[in-house]
Write a structure and sequence with these properties.
13 helices; 5 domains; Ubiquitin-like (UB roll); alpha/beta; elongated; four-stranded mixed β-sheet
Amino acid sequence: MKAFVVLIVSCALLQAQTRHPRKPAAKTTAAATTDPSKWPLESFRVLGNSHYTREQIFAQSGLRLGQPVTKGDFDAARDRLVASGAFISVNCGYDPAPDGKGYAATIEVGEVPELYPLHVEDVPVTDAELLAFAKPRDSLSGPKIPGTKEAVARYKDYLTELLASKNYKEPIAGTLTSENPPELIVLFRPVAPRLNVSHVKFTGAAAISATTLQNKISEVARGVPYNETTFRVLLDNNVRPLYEAKGRMRVSFLRITSEPDPNVKGVIVSVEVEEGPVYKLGKVQVAGAVDRESEMLKLTNLKEGETANFDQVKAASQRIEQSLHRAGYLQVSSESERHYDDAAKTVAVTIRIHPGPQFTFAKLNIVGLDIETEPTIRKMWGLNEGKPFNEDYPQHFLNRVKEGGVFDNLRNTRFENKIDADAHTVEVTLYFNEKLKDEKVKDEKCKRF
């Protein structure tokens, strides 16, 4: 077959000129003989795909191998792919098949860059059930879906149909949301607003009493609109540390359920806890402490073989930061890295220090003293210009001046640090005999009378 036909169609709905293929010989397929404008589709290829397989895309197009096709069939295939919301662009084309008896199709797609996990809440259906229901109905189905309005609307329809089979008829909304930070999800839930948490119950707790857990989570969760994702974050931030202070490093919150509170307009949340075994502290290391790792390691006072207590690990990190603050590292930060050996039930810890730049002392200013007493204070000041700045020193110095009785009837004192973040220097101003706010107000009243 020497005739050559090309059709280009896109999601922009641009229509290309087509030249009808030369009428095939009488020995072609019965469908072609019945309708000379139709030729069978013999093969296909897909270009530009990464999220979806060629088979998924071809199935979504609605085309079938062996099917007699015309330009209208390729237009419809394009429309089906565009309508899925999974593609930014769709180009379809066809050429004569190598044997000259049909068409070879090419589908070139530009996929939506990101796919997102779907999640359902506050309905009698799980994520897995919705995905299973969608699979035979959606050729592009998978654990993640596009966040486009077309894809979200399609899955909302699937969920509505599934819920109707369970006699659930409340309206459903679907939206792309950041309620599972930092990950975006496509969330499906009832249109009605969430109810607030009124009470929390724990089961499976032994190492820590259920009452202690309830009191801790109630501080942050009671009165907050309930959804499981946010509630798990609250558990991780507030309840998990209680267990990690007792070596229960693998505590998990297996099952979280909610039910209407019969006494108030709210929900009762039930949490099933699996506390897990007690872990011992493995090797402890300090890294990044500007060549003072050995000194900082002693400062941690953490001992291998003791029950892992991450309240103590946090306190050790703070002691290291405070020590480096006194050495001029005013922007120091730290993080604790954990290395689990589940077989040995140990957790090794590396306290990784990010010291930042070292700040030096630049200048001393003194306010509130006369020319006779100011030199005395300057002589007492022991921090030299150009040396690492100890942030504790100004207050320590003022305390020493007061306790030493250098001045009779010395009144209020304070200090201010002026930090130059670019030059990494600190300028200190000491204030002596400064009137307090109440004294200033009293003076103003006296002046008026």
